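Repro:
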Amino acid sequence: MQKNIRGNSFILELQVPRVYFQDVCTPRIREKLGVSRISWIRKKEEWEKKREELLLPSLFPEREALFLEDLREEAILEIAQEAPRYGGVFFFFLISP
């Protein structure tokens, strides 16, 4: 992650064990993007709840990274279409090989 990042949606194919990704890569992503919060979303229901939270107005908005995994393709496409409306939120769609 040496370059400036544009956009807020990324697709990552995990080529390393998940524990390594969470322990080593996630802190680097947090530092590079300057996010204060990281959330893991593994079910569409979790996304629905998070969407409602993101739509609420906030006096002090936080930059956040969402790691979405194990979602069906239709859910991923729906979320990816909505992603640009959430400023300060980065979406990482994790795909296992």
